[in-house]
Amino acid sequence: MTTPAKRLRELLAAPGILASPGVYDGISAQIAAEAGFEVLYMTGSGVSLGTYGMPDVGLLTLTEMAESCKRITSVVPNPVIADADTGYGNAVNVTRTVREYEGAGAAGIQFEDQVTPKKCSHLSGREVIDTEEMCLKIAAACEARRDPDTVIVARTDARESLGIDEAIRRGQAYREAGADILFLTAPEGEEELARIPREIDAPCLLIMAWAAEKLSLVRLAEMGFKLAVYPGDLQRISAFAMREASKMLRETGSLEALERRMLSYPQRFDLAGYGAVREVESKYLPPE
């Protein structure tokens, strides 16, 4: 049987670049899967903002994030790479984090080298732990896997405070420690971008922001990137739409002007798998 983790490894080994949207709850995951994305990315910022209404500054716990992951993986078959922040503590905490995330269905688990509490990569003032400490956390994560196919993603935020050379050096060290995918935040300029996959012998993940947002997937694939993630785009557009619709509803008492652009009530239920529920009802419930 091909598990989501094994499928993720197959996709990583195949030619080409993978585009992955940031999802944060059941319906965002279902929409992304329906659109045809093969790999989904559970964004920690999206979960923090979308599920709890709080900024992504390290306020959520392991259990809250693992539960969010389970909500996503329970409704889509796609491999999900799940943000696990700093692992919620030291290497001992990382061990439990891996097992909780595997239990929640994550095919890949992302750890970062920030100090605790961490900050979203779009915020300034991020500080990082020592390289050695992060390498030990990665090694602990690898050893804690119950499924050897579970993919470990290592993220470094060193570029902001220590420069691109140190960020790349850390990426190389994290690969040696056992990380399967490397992720360097906040590169500046196309030259820095090109150095990342060229100098790190591993599949590299890139957030489509900073220097990357104006480059095509074709160009990024030519550079050697394997994963292009759009972490906040679905949430940004949905929040914009909800804000505008809320203002219209408050001011006019109706959304009739938007009706043709909205999902119908049946479409909304179909998206969430109501058809499968009806099949079970027809098979196992007595006739009315």
Question: Can I get a quick summary?
Answer:
By secondary structure, this protein is α/β, with parallel strands linked by helices.
Using brief descriptors, characterize the structure shown.
single chain, 288 residues, eight-stranded parallel barrel, 49% helix
User: What is the strand tally?
Assistant: 8
Report the major sheet: 8 strands, parallel, barrel
Percent range of helical residues: 40-55%
The side-by-side strand order for the widest beta sheet comes to 1-2-3-4-5-6-7-8
User: Which stretches are poorly predicted, pLDDT < 50 over at least 5 residues?
Assistant: none
Estimated structural class? alpha/beta
| CATH A-level architecture | Alpha-Beta Barrel
Alpha-carbon distance between the two ends:
39 Å
Give the mean pLDDT: 95
Question: Roughly what fraction of the amino acids lie in strands?
Answer: 5-15%
Judging from the principal axes of the Cα atoms, what is the shape?
globular
Alpha plus pi helix count:
13
- SSE pattern: HEHEHHEHEHEHHEHEHEHHH
What is the H level of CATH, i.e. the homologous superfamily? Phosphoenolpyruvate-binding domains
CATH topology: TIM Barrel
Describe the structure.
The protein is α/β, with parallel strands linked by helices. Helices cover about 50% and strands about 10% of the residues. The protein has 13 helices and eight strands. The protein has helices at about 5-15, 25-35, 45-50, 60-75, 90-105, 130-145, 160, 165-175, 190-200, 215-225, 235-250, 265-270, 275-285; strands at about 20-25, 40, 80-85, 110, 150-155, 180-185, 205, 225-230. Strand 3 (about 80-85), helix 5 (about 90-105) and strand 4 (about 110) form a beta-alpha-beta unit. Helix 5 packs parallel to helix 6 (about 130-145) and helix 6 packs parallel to helix 8. The longest helix is centred in the C-terminal third of the chain and has 20 residues, at about 235-250.
